[in-house]
Amino acid sequence: MKKVKITVKKMACYPDLIATYENPIEHACEMQLGQTFVANGWKKPQGFCESAWESISPFVMTLAHGGGDFYDGWMKNPKSAMISCNDGFRPVSFLLEALDEEAEDL
Questions:
Q1: Gap between the Cα atoms of 31 and 29, Å rounded
Q2: Taking the chain, what is the end-to-end CA distance rounded to the nearest angstrom?
Q3: pLDDT tens, position by position, for the chain (106 residues)?
Q4: CA atoms of 80 and 50, how far apart (whole Å)
């Protein structure tokens, strides 16, 4: 099984939607642009957002197990994926990349 590098590539925020629909939340998103994590195989990296993990984990699992080429050539690098979390108020886009490095014993 491979390790998978996860990089925060883009962050959006929709204040109009937040003001209209969201109850106030302190520390709703702790991600930072350019921040990287490494998933040891299919395991969620420590400190990674639980909600974002639910969105990206199927792709991480596929890459960790040697799969890729999602949607028949969608990505230039077939061992990668660009996936966003499911937060409709402040979505974060993550670049997932399979590393040549093998995951440690799980």
A1: 6
A2: 10
A3: 999 999 999 999 999 999 999 998 888 888 999 999 999 988 999 999 999 999 999 999 999 999 999 999 999 999 999 999 999 999 999 999 999 888 876 5
A4: 21
Strand partners, 81: 96
Give pairs for 29-33: CB < 8 Å, separation 24+.
29/87, 29/90, 29/92, 31/92, 32/8, 33/8, 33/9
Please check whether residue 102 is in contact with residue 2, taking contact to mean a CB–CB distance below 8 angstroms.
yes
Residue-wise burial string across 43-72, b where 16 or more C-beta atoms lie within 10 A, e elsewhere: bbbeebbeebbebbbebbbbbbeeebebee
Whole-number Å distance between alpha carbons of 3 and 41: 5
